Amino acid sequence: MKTGDQRLTGDQVGTIVKMLGLTTDREFNCGECLQHVGEYAERQLSNKPVSDVIASVEQHLALCPECREEYEALRKILEAGQ
């Protein structure tokens, strides 16, 4: 590969295709996701069904590593309190 060549690897292309498949017409931004992530975590831990709003949280977490990190930290706290 020449210096400055910006080609994507097969793994990078696969990640982009996967993320495109997860997109929807209306998606939460990070602020909206974080408003509902607590309810999402509680429902996940108690195996309760998720509403459409909470499903949007799940979809956002699949795409956003920063919000997913917040969710995982919150889930650990909730699990420790059980």
Oligomer: single chain
Structural class: mainly alpha
List the secondary-structure elements in sequence, H or E: HHHH
Poorly predicted sequence stretches spanning 5 or more consecutive residues:
none
Task: Report mean pLDDT, rounded to a whole number.
Answer: 84
Helix content percent band: over 70%
Alpha plus pi helix count: 4
- Using only C-alpha atoms, the radius of gyration works out to 16 Å
Taking the sheet with the most strands, its summary is: none
Strand content: under 5%
Tell me, briefly, the overall form.
elongated
The count of strands amounts to: 0
Tell me the distance between the termini.
Answer: 53 Å
Q: What is this entry, summarized?
A:
The chain is mostly helical. The protein has helices at residues 10-22, 30-46, 52-63, 65-80. It contains four helices and no strands.
